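Deviations from the work plan: none for this task. Representative record:
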Amino acid sequence: MNKANKIIKVEGLERSFPSTEGKGETQVFGDVWFDVKEGEFVCLIGHSGCGKTTLLNILAGLDQATSGHVIADGFAVEKPSLDRAVIFQGHALMPWMTVMGNIDFAVSSRWPAWDKEKRRAHCQQFIDMVHLTGSENKKPAQLSGGMKQRVGIARALAIEPKVLLMDEPFSALDALTRGSLQDELLGIIAQRGQTSFMITHDIDEAILLSDRIVLMTNGPEARVCEIVENSLPKERTRSDMHTHPNYYPMRNHLIEFLVNRSKSFREELASASYDPKNPPVVRPAADGDTLNQVAS
Amino acid sequence: MSQDVKDRLKAMVASIGFLVVFLAAWNAFVVAQSGPAADMDPELAALLGPQAKGESALPTPGDVGSEIWGHISNPFYDAGPNDKGVGIQLAYSIFRVLTGFGLAALIAIPLGFLIGMSKLAAQALNPYIQLLKPVSPLAWMPLALYTIKDSEISSIFVIFICSIWPMLLNTIFGVASVRKDWLNVAKTLEVPPLRTAWRVILPAAAPTILTGMRISIGIAWLVIVAAEMLVGGTGIGYFVWNEWNNLSITGVISAIFFIGVVGMILDLMLGQAAKLVAYAE
Ligand SMILES: Nc1ncnc2c1ncn2[C@@H]1O[C@H](COP(=O)(O)OP(=O)(O)O)[C@@H](O)[C@H]1O
Ligand SMILES: [Mg+2]
């Protein structure tokens, strides 16, 4: 696993904003180190306001870090790239374009030389993939929230990015729609071997989708508390994962983090040895958690 | 019959009802004013003209109706500088409004685009726009006449000046408030700036820009009447003034009717254009 090609490396990332009182700077997060390997699905969990969106914008190249850097496929990220597709928190579809138009806007940006026919065929493939066949000529306003986010997924994947970045893509949806979209996304990503990074604050979503979960403490001055390896088997589904003996250890570990440790991490820091470059890696399981401090 | 059609029919019947009541009241008012004036000094009667014969100075709806019909049936006659058909006069005014408005749009929309894209430019130019915007366009007239020395171009200039502000401000506002998400989508797709302007910013801001254009053309049509009254020569504003000088209240009222109709048509046209670029979020 460690030998796998690291598509994204986050190295000592810090982001500060001028503080609201007008004096000095407020650090949103700092000393953040983690990576995403090829074909891997990494989730980042943290409370609202800890800087998740800010971090994702830096990964996408839409925002600049105050210090540290992000390496994507061997090069420092300075600006957005077609190699890193983003699914935004609000679906961010252009309301004056149809479903086809929205996806075609992305595809024609990716392959400007393609003729219309070739682009259409390519778009159609992705529209079919997210089960929107028949809605090609609808405008976003005519679609339900779940369908809009499906278009967002199709638009992001249609450019065949190396990495898919997602900022709480399902947080605005009702529970039922969210569930079925998670299942679909899981299938699509597994089938394509798509390297993905997703921000969420939904524990079950993280357990279902991710291989590893990065835990971020509360801001300001948020840190990566630890990295949790998913101990559930890769072939899990939303309906059967609850029956696996490792499900509750995973879930309880994450809840414990969100409820208590995300707030009290600073005290934890003082008492234990903590290396921000190699945050502790934990694998919660029914037969006891394992803590592997592997140097990467 | 669907509820929608029924409602519209009801509104139409009510509209016609209002018109009938209004015309009847107008007619009754004029008739009541024109009482018999039998025992009047003949000399005074001669001085007073038609009023002495017991007629009111105000025309009846019938008088105005036949005058309007007369104009409609022969709109384009030309019998010298003081006697042209209302169609010719309206054409002059429409030409001036469309020229001034068109030039203003050609400048305001691209300029507003540039200003709206740069926070610095928007902040730097805002005080000037705020200062110039509330100035009555007619206040520019003497300056225009003095510098341009041509009454035709001066009235076009006045239309230009009054149409530019709503379009400029709305374009700046529309461009500056394009949702950041849409711009971020374009950025992550590495879309070049011109294509972003054309495919994202313009369609996003178009409804706001068109609202500005609609306000502008409304103001331009208000202003042209006053400008032509000042400058004279041709145009529907001059026509109104001329009718007033001839003491033809019938003529003035029918001109008001034509001004209203043209203003309504101009607004409807931009309203239709606004529908074409509207989008629902
Ligand atoms: N442009 C900005 N200027 C100042 N402060 C900002 C800016 N963007 C984000 N912040 C601050 O950074 C913190 C994290 O924001 P965000 O990344 O949106 O959090 P999350 O996505 O985890 O909810 C917030 O406290 C917010 O006030
Ligand atoms: Mg957020």
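Residues 193-231 of chain B form the longest helix (39 residues).
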